Amino acid sequence: MKKLRVVVVSSGLAPQFGGAAVSEASLCAFLSQHADVTVLCRGDAVDGEFVQGFGLNGVVRYQPAEIYEAWRNKAEWVHKILDAADVLHLNGHWRWENYFFARLCKRKGVPYVLHPRGMLLVGHRKTLLKYLFNLLIGKWIVRHASKVIALSQFETRHFDTYGLPARAVQIIPNGIPVNESKQIPIPAHIHLPEKYFLYYGRVEKRKNLVFLVQAFGEYVRAGGSAHLFIMGPVERGYDRTIRAAADAEDVTFRVHLLAPQYDDTRWELVRRSLAVVYPALEEPFGRVPFEAVAVGTVPIIPDRSGSAEYLKWHLPSAVYKHQDRHSLSAALLRAEKGSIGGTPEAREWVKNALDWKRISNAVLDLYREVGAGTA
């Protein structure tokens, strides 16, 4: 069978782009085993070391203006890449050059698949700009895609305002690697208490960390004895907001902010924690809870999330009610007592259902359907 020729437009291939970058890079690496894959990414959104870590060679860096120039029948190198493609895979949404990628595909008869990765939600930040973007070009990008990939059924809630028919949406979750990890020492500068909960990810408003601190305060008042570590890169000075919330709850001595840790140190912190708490709002998937399960740690997650959609069947007592402090506090108490069961079963499910080979094969099948006009 002839190899598919796939062009992937990445929304970012660098650590600061979080889980989306990990998922995009992982998918490209696995797709490359069965297809001819060309990866395009904004020049300022590529980190060479990050890309090399996934074995991605020859990522093509572009400037947004070059895609506009290609639409005006200039920038011949862009035309050369698209003319050779069987399908284009467009990640993210809030990039104006995506409109010109989509227009070029329509002009050339190349089908494109849109993979928004939670980006179709209009809210939290820059709401007016997002509304105008969608009014001018965003909805066109979405509606003219041959297929839109959702990470969960939960994410399809974000599609309501775009007028997409159900047949235009394909649900394919992210892959999660499950590896056996050995216990390692924690760096000397990190002082861990005997018992702690862990959040890791970007430290910003949408991650709902003030709510987490407030629920943690209730947990402490109910007799909980563990600490809370919040680990990750701080955005827009949000650490000050968290410290103020901890002070208001009188738990400053129990809430600790920690710089991002990577590789083995991160996984060891996850493994040693009582549970990983991930309270993010409107999260379509969220790699963090699944990564916790992959190393054998309980995740605590809201019922209104993509992660709960998949994990509630194995970890029902790890799921709390959306924005209910008492419900989250109770889940923290259960985790401290060790009464949240089901982690081994959940880990086995993640290992099988979210295996990257399985996920990449599902994406390849979708490409073939789109190319054949049967999607």
Summarize it:
The protein is α/β, with parallel strands linked by helices and 375 residues long. It has helices at residues 18-31, 48-53, 64-71, 76-83, 97-108, 127-143, 209-221, 238-248, 263-272, 287-294, 306-311, 325-337, 343-353, 356-372; strands spanning 4-9, 35-42, 60-62, 87-91, 112-115, 147-150, 169-171, 196-200, 227-231, 255-258, 275-277, 299-302, 319-320.
Task: Say how many strands there are.
Answer: 13
pLDDT < 50 stretches: none
Number of DSSP helices?
A: 14
* Amino- and carboxy-terminal Cα gap: 20 Å
Query: Compute the gyration radius: what is it?
Result: 21 Å
Strand content: 5-15%
H/E element order: EHEHEHHEHEHEEEHEHEHEHEHEHHH
CATH architecture title of the largest domain: 3-Layer(aba) Sandwich
> In terms of quaternary structure, what is this?
single chain
Number of domains: 2
| SS-derived structural category | alpha/beta
Q: Provide the CATH topology of the largest domain.
A: Rossmann fold
Taking the sheet with the most strands, its summary is: 7 strands, parallel
The level of helicity is 40-55%
Assign the CATH class of the largest domain. Alpha Beta
Strand order of the largest sheet: 3-2-1-4-5-6-7
Q: Taking all residues together, what is the mean pLDDT?
A: 94
CATH superfamily heading of the largest domain:
Glycogen Phosphorylase B
